[in-house]
Amino acid sequence: MEITKQTKMGEMIEYDRGIAVVLMESGMHCVGCPASIGESLEEACMVHGLDADEVLAKINEYLASK
């Protein structure tokens, strides 16, 4: 699966639960919130004041290290 800024939060976490850890370490602590599941990575980052490109890079780094 290719993860992009448009990928829904729920899809990412379903694909690999380790992504939830990356998101929480980035400052996104609402990973389990039902409202966040339908948001894209970009939307969720915007709500939390995070740079979506930086978070996406961390996710891709995590996935590449597996």
How would you briefly describe this protein structure?
The protein has 66 residues and is mainly α. Helices cover 55% and strands 0% of the residues.
Explain how this protein is built.
The protein has 66 residues and is mostly helical. Helices cover 55% and strands 0% of the residues. It contains four helices and no strands. The chain has helices at 9-15, 18-25, 41-48, 52-64. Helix 2 runs antiparallel to helix 4 and helix 3 (41-48) packs across helix 4. The longest helix has 13 residues, at 52-64.
Number of helices: 4
Number of strands: 0
Helix vs. strand class = mainly alpha
Largest sheet: none
Shape: globular
Helix content class: 40-55%
Q: Terminal Cα separation, in Å?
A: 14 Å
Task: Give me some keywords for this one.
66 residues; mainly alpha; 4 helices; 55% helix
Topology:
Layout: H1 9-15, H2 18-25, H3 41-48, H4 52-64
Helix pairs in contact: 2-4, 3-4
